[in-house]
Write a structure and sequence with these properties.
71 residues; mainly alpha; 6 helices; globular
Amino acid sequence: IQESIVEAGALPKLVALLAPGTPSGLQADAASLLRELARNSGSNRAHIAAAGGIPPLVALLAAGSTAAVQE
């Protein structure tokens, strides 16, 4: 299932939900989904990085977004 999600092009959409101005609940959900996709797959981690996912995840942690950080 995870491969299908990546192959369907969902990663850029999930990364976009991490952007400032997105409601914190949506940011938390996107971060959680990205975490699950990355958990056991080096390939998925590389795809997430290629989609630009690392900077917004770091920004969420730096901003201390309560909902997103709890995920």
